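Dear colleagues,

As part of the handover before I leave the project, I'm documenting each prediction I ran so the next person doesn't have to rerun anything. This entry is a single chain, and its sequence is reproduced below.
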Amino acid sequence: MTYDTLRVERAGHVATLTLNRPERMNAFDSRMRDELPRAWDELAEDSEVWCIIVTGAGDRAFCAGMDLREPAAPASRPDEKVARVRLTALDCEVGKPVITAVNGVCAGGGLAFVADSDLVLCSANASFTDARTSAGQVSIHGTLRLARRIPLEAVLRLVLLGKAERVSPQRALEIGLVGEVVPQGDLLPRAHALASAITANSPAAIFHSRFAIWDSLNHGLHDALERGFEVVTRFAREYPDAMEGARAFVERRPPRWTYAPPPGRRKDLAKR
């Protein structure tokens, strides 16, 4: 499948999704907002894809958020419910590990990709800012999940100070916004090295583990532990990788993993 605002490339069990509007600092317009869910669905349904890297085209910006130069959509009726914008893998319930590689500026709604990723690394020329309140916009996309991931005060500084607050790579590392800072030229090679390490493991075990972890954020600890134990017991009972890992260890050979679709996909839920 081809896209106007995205590039999708595959190498082994790793797919790279590139936001591809470098002339607009990879800001998302209506076309990109339409294409992202379709691209995520394509990657979620591809059994050869076990891990996904997200990055931006060029070195200037990862994503500048919403493209404010695009004409605003006609106002909806006061009583009309507007569908929530879904940009990220977590929004679209892809269920596979996502590594975000931030090259350059990450601003506004672009923070959603950082907040919703499993692993985040950035280049030494990266910066993070949220100027939405400075442009008269409410900041929730990305920042609500960031408030569950990094110190609340750090999120509020981004939102309340607007364009006056710009987080450096080192500060991003200190507050847990990113897990690594690497030289600009090493960004994608390091992301691919992390993805290769992930795809060496059982894809089914990875999918179920991350599902339980992300799901736990929606519940108190007691309920999260109960739900997590259900995932573990069901996996041991129904998935061959639970036995294959131990068998390969005893037989001193590389494991032969069996792909299984991630849990929690909307299509799966609709069948229940």
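The two ends are 29 Å apart (CA to CA). The CA atoms of residues 104 and 126 lie 4 Å apart.

All the best with the project,
I.
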